[in-house]
Amino acid sequence: MRDYALATLFKAHHSPVAKRSGCLSEANPAILRPASCFRLPPRPCQKWRRHMRDNYDIISVIRQSNTDKGELEMGKASFRVVDFGRTKYGEKAKKYILKGAGGAILEVSDYGGKVVRLFTPDRKGRLKDVVVGFDSPAGWDSGDAYWGCIIGRYGNRIAKGEFKLDGRKIKLPALNNAPAGIGCNLHGGARGWNAYVWDAKPFVYGDKVGVVFTHTSPDGDEGFPGRVDAKVTYTLTAKNVWRVDYEAVTDKPTPINMTQHVYFNFKGEAGGTIEDHVMKIAASRVTPTDAGQIPTGRVVSVAGTPFDFRKGMRIGERINEKNEQLDFGRGYDHNWVLDEGVMAKKKAKARLNFAAEVSCPLNGRFVKVYTTEPCLQVYTANWCDWNQRGKGGEHLSFRCGIALETQHAPDSPNHPEWPTTIVRPGQVYKTATEFRFGAK
Prior knowledge:
Blueprint: H1 2-21, H2 46-54, H3 56-65, E1 78-86, E2 92-99, E3 105-109, E4 115-121, E5 127-129, H4 137-142, E6 150-151, E7 157-159, E8 162-165, E9 168-171, E10 184-186, E11 199-205, E12 208-217, E13 228-236, E14 241-250, E15 254-255, E16 259-260, E17 263-264, E18 278-281, E19 283-287, E20 300-301, E21 313-314, H5 324-329, E22 333-338, E23 353-359, E24 365-371, E25 375-379, E26 402-407, E27 422-423, E28 429-439
Antiparallel strand pairs: 1-2, 2-3, 3-4, 4-5, 6-16, 7-10, 8-9, 11-12, 12-13, 13-14, 14-28, 15-27, 17-26, 18-21, 18-23, 19-20, 19-22, 22-25, 23-24, 24-28, 25-26
Helix pairs in contact: 1-2, 1-3
């Protein structure tokens, strides 16, 4: 097990040396051959020592959970709480290492509910971290702030940062996103809920383990009316299901549209492009956008277009076709209207419905997404910057991950004909999404 833990770190900073030494398997570089062939660098660099220090706790959990073959053993659900450093706002953050009874390991932080790592097994039972992100708060604070975070108060875009609410015009101060130079309010504004340290209470309940996050957003936060008390519960089950439950109440009418912005790559967090992954989406229609990636108000069929994933298709199969919508987003960054959701069926029941599946043919890993939400935003990291470094100092790359954001449609406050996102006093905003992991 010592070999497995060390190799995970060794790969991040000395992978060329590791491969030459023959200690890493070509099929899965995080799984070692016998210990006798493992050689540390003669003078481990400062970066290596720092990575050893920063990742000691997650490695300890893996060490306790793995067999000598690097496979997770199923057992009791448990958690550990460790320090995660300070945010740029001066807040102290913690991380919560959740070991599921089914073998998966989920590492999250109270800093915006960020998913730091998620280990799932492949078809041979071998573990790998399958989410793209950063090692510490500094990664989010100096780079893309949304990777793996809870998004709120309003996930996705609001055109021009303004909308009408009960006949009154609401103008949000932040236009923090401007595709094609067209400004909009994105993911709650300049400092959305992703950028706060939430109160957190970890729990074990039978064979389930998780964390309950709570946060209070004051009246006028980022220009939105009303105080909102939000609660998000992460639960990891014995069947390797990560369930996210969202709840919120307010003292004034206000739009709420929460989601999770995790990026998956089932070849591993530094596995390169996800264009070879296969995706299926249970949606017959999408909401096309203008050049500013704001929905036009139309809802159109996917039939005969690069957006038709109803029967499953490799993500890269049509992503580079000449298509105005793909040009606007440099790939997929669009909202699918789920066939079983309330936007497609006005009398749809508020239950978990199948939304999408993404799988990796190379190793069999997959996730199936079920949600009570009416829509799904799929984003294939088309604007990812090579100069940004992720976990272990690895360069992030174009289309290195895929986000599956369950939601109401973008810009819904400006489209009263769509299912409302307005929550009023006395109402409880409540949605749920499950990410069901497996291998085939």
